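Progress report, Aim 2. The chain analyzed during this reporting quarter is listed below.
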Amino acid sequence: MEDYSHLNQKERDEKYQETLKALVGDKRPSHAHDIRISIIDDDYAITNTLASQLHREGYLVAKANDGMQGLGIVRGDLPHLIILDMMMPDKNGEEMLKELRGYEWGKDIPVLILSNYDKYASLAEDPALAPVTFMSKTGSSIEKVIEIIRSLVPSYNQEG
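Predicted structure tokens for the chain:
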């Protein structure tokens, strides 16, 4: 995957538009609007299921299985939303989130924390880490997760 971090937002969006059109043509749902989502989770089943559903809805999805890889793909993609697990090898989600917020390019990207550990819900209340939303994996259907994602991505927020 190419690194587009040197491009401004308009140039980056144009590159993604070209890539998406080459991949799927104009057969995407109109709500997607080239929204980039990064999924960072070491549970391959969750990552692949969620990515598959988001692809079907027309979103551009990048995946990583730990916080170190996650920071790399986020820096390269500058996604519109990050879906982040907390318990991962190498660099856990909390460490990654705190490091992300230290970079100018990462301070305002919305993050959806998906975790089985409710102790991480308090991260969503920390103004230094905002914008963050917490959702428990336990008992959450894929449909509910997608509903929350839709509420967090720019196209849904703008079209209301």
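Residues 24-30 have pLDDT under 50 and may be disordered. DSSP finds six helices and five strands in the chain. These observations will guide the mutagenesis work planned for the next reporting period.
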